[in-house]
Amino acid sequence: MxxxxxxxxxxxxxxxxxxxxxxxxxxxxxxxxxxxxIDTDEGLSGISISSPGADNAIKTLEPLLVGKDPRGVKGLWxxxxxxxxxxxxxxxxxDAIGAIDVGLWDLKAKINEEPLWKTLGGSTRYVKVYASGIxxxxxxxxxxxxxxxxxxQGISAGKLKxxxxxxSDLRRIGIMNDALKKSGKPVQLLIDSNxxxxxxxxxxxxxxxxxxxxxxxxxxxxxxxxxRGLRKVSQSVTAAVATGENxxxxxxxxxxFQNEAVDVAQIGMGTSGITGLMKVxxxxxxxxxxxxxxxxxxxxxxxxxxxxxxxxxxxVFHDRDAGILVTDSTIKDGYLVLGDTxxxxxxxxxxxxxxxxxxxxxxxxxGAGASALGRRRGAGLLEVPSHEAETLNE
Length: 394
Description:
The protein is an alpha/beta fold. It has helices spanning 55-65, 73-83, 91-112, 116-119, 140-152, 166-180, 199-210, 227-236, 250-258, 273-286, 302-306, 350-354, 389-392, and strands at 3-19, 28-40, 45-50, 126-132, 157-161, 188-192, 215-219, 240-243, 264-267, 291-293, 314-317, 325-327, 330-332, 335-337, 346-348.
């Protein structure tokens, strides 16, 4: 079997509610995605998901794969990593490598006629999950509704966006806490400030929050690469420090591990695909650090969690798939239950996909998303109330 080419299909759509964080508190409904198909000469295709911004990078890497046996996934991953050596495995090139790698693993499992979690060596179909609302723009009632719905599925851990106003954060954490208690299980509270704080700001705010609530982890309380700041936060609060969402590959995690700056390593397709995230997970295991899979539309990366011995729990959130993505996994009693469909369990509703536009509906371009405007003014310096943001940006 040989790879014959890679097809891509970008799509743009609107969510049914706003998503946002401390860098974009007003939120956004405009979202985008791109289906990636890796085709073979035997009619079998691997499927993955990326962003429209990675399209050109994928096309640049495609000739390296044409004619290759798709079953040699790890060797092909190394081939791609070596190919981008000069510019580095960063940005859209990292996005492209991650998408291709996930598609190749899907293809390999289909060739094996088994679910990907078995191809990767997983021994269980159950993956513990936590709910994540990307919920800065939501009203108090909407927050309650979101986490009550999670609790109705047996989910007792939830992550709330924080960082702009401490009083509001405390009120909203309380709402999430009360909602998750309806699961009937011990509650785990997670908060995420999305790198909006400096290390000292984070310590001050987290300590104040911990006077009221037991926080399981604080996510990105300082800049992603700032091992000094992250270590300072970890040593100054009782909550674990979680980070890794915006890191590209194992080289980015190494200084964090070596300098005791991370307590939970967060990994996903953005960590150079399944091959890359497994390497980070193995390194974390050597440091006795747990990992958490995250940021996975319709949870299609979940098969990798089954094969990671130090995996803690996986993020599940409000659907961001425009109704075109389907997986064979289900949530039951706080766990994602993986199915037995050959491959990663992901399938595409092609008829619905055909109805979606291939170009952006707003001025955010291929990067449409909840944080499309980048890091917010005042980050790391002043905690600017959301109602002052427009004035500062004039």
